[in-house]
C-alpha cells in the first residue's frame, strides 16, 4: 500500500489498492451523499440506499471485483462451518494437495460464482430484449452487450456485500472501541459493549441485516432493469432470473449463518 502510494500517488488508491476500491464501492450504498460544490464546499444529501447502485461501473474488471467481494464474504462464513471442514479434509485426502486445498476450493468457488452471475445476466438481457435494435447494439459490443449488462447489474449486489460486512464485523468494532477507550482514557476496565445482548438477539440482528441487504439489492436491480429495457413488462420479465437468484442466495446466506461455528 505504501509503495503503491509513493510510486503512483492518488491513482493507486483509485484503481489498485483493494481496500480503497472496496470502500469506495461501498460508498454507493451510503444513505448520505456528499458532493463538492463549485466553491469547494461540501453538499450533503440524504438518499435511498440503492440510489448509488443504479449507475454502471467502469468496466468488467470492476464488476468481477464486486462479485468476488460478495463471494469472499460468503466463503468466509462458510469456512467456519463443519460442512466446509468436512469438504476441506475430504478434498485434501482425495487430491493430496495439503494446505493448498483451501486456496483451491476458494478459487473454484469464485469461478463458479462469477460464471453463474454472468450467465444469469445474459439470461436477463435475453428475456428483456424486445426489439431488433437491442440485438444490434448487443452484437456491436455496446452497453447492451453482455459486458454492458454485467457492468450495469453488478453494482446492484453491493448492498449485499455491505450488509455482510456490517453483520460480520460490528461485534469486533464495538469490542475494539471498548479496548480503545481503555487505552486512551484512564477509566479502568470497560465492560463488554455487547455483553447485554442475548445470543438470540445477536443472531436475529445478523438475519435482519442480511435480509435488508438482499431486499435493497433486489430493489436496485429492478430500477436498473426498468431503465435498461424498453417497457415495464420487459423489465419485469428480464428481472425475473435475478429475483430467483437473489431468493436462492438469501436462503443460502441464512443457512450459512445458522450453522454452528467451529474453530
Quick rundown:
By secondary structure, this protein is mainly alpha-helical.
Written account of the structure:
This protein is mostly helical and 263 residues long. The protein has two domains: 2-47, no CATH class; 55-258, no CATH class. It is built from eleven helices and two strands. Strands 1-2 form a two-stranded antiparallel ribbon. Strand 1 and strand 2 (42-46) form a beta hairpin. Helix 6 (101-128) packs antiparallel against helix 11 (232-258) and helix 10 packs antiparallel against helix 11. The protein is globular and about 65 Å long. The model is unreliable at 132-143 (pLDDT under 50).
SSE blueprint and pairings:
Blueprint: H1 2-8, H2 10-15, H3 18-26, E1 32-36, E2 42-46, H4 60-78, H5 82-95, H6 101-128, H7 132-139, H8 146-153, H9 158-184, H10 199-228, H11 232-258
Antiparallel strand pairs: 1-2
Helix pairs in contact: 4-6, 4-9, 6-8, 6-11, 9-10, 10-11
Q: Note the overall shape.
A: globular
**Topology, number of strands:** 2
End-to-end Cα distance, whole Å, is 31 Å
Strand content bin: under 5%
Low-confidence stretches: 132-143
Amino acid at each position: 500500500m505504501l509503495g503503491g502510494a509513493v510510486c503512483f500517488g492518488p491513482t493507486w488508491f483509485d484503481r489498485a489498492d483493494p481496500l480503497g476500491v472496496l470502500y469506495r464501492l461501498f460508498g454507493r450504498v451510503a444513505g448520505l451523499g456528499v458532493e463538492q460544490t463549485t466553491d469547494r464546499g461540501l453538499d450533503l444529501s440524504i438518499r435511498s440506499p440503492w440510489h448509488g447502485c443504479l449507475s454502471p461501473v467502469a468496466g468488467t474488471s470492476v464488476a468481477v471485483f464486486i462479485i468476488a467481494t460478495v463471494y469472499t464474504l460468503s466463503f468466509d462464513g462458510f469456512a467456519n462451518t463443519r460442512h466446509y471442514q468436512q469438504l476441506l479434509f475430504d478434498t485434501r485426502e482425495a487430491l493430496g494437495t495439503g494446505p493448498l486445498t483451501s486456496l483451491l476450493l476458494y478459487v473454484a468457488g469464485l469461478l463458479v460464482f462469477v460464471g453463474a452471475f454472468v450467465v444469469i445476466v445474459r439470461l436477463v438481457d435475453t428475456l428483456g430484449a424486445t426489439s431488433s435494435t437491442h440485438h444490434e447494439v448487443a452484437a456491436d459490443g455496446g452497453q447492451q452487450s453482455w459486458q454492458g449488462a454485467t457492468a450495469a447489474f453488478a453494482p446492484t449486489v453491493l448492498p449485499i456485500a455491505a450488509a455482510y460486512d456490517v453483520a460480520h464485523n460490528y461485534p469486533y468494532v464495538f469490542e475494539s472501541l471498548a479496548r480503545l477507550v481503555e487505552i486512551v482514557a484512564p477509566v479502568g476496565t470497560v465492560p463488554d459493549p455487547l455483553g447485554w445482548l442475548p445470543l438470540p438477539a445477536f443472531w436475529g440482528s445478523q438475519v435482519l441485516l442480511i435480509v435488508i441487504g438482499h431486499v435493497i439489492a433486489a430493489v436496485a436491480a429492478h430500477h436498473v432493469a426498468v431503465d435498461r429495457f424498453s417497457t415495464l413488462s420487459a423489465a419485469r420479465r428480464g428481472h425475473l432470473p435475478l429475483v430467483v437468484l437473489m431468493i436462492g442466495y438469501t436462503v443460502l446466506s441464512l443457512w450459512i449463518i445458522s450453522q454452528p461455528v467451529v474453530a
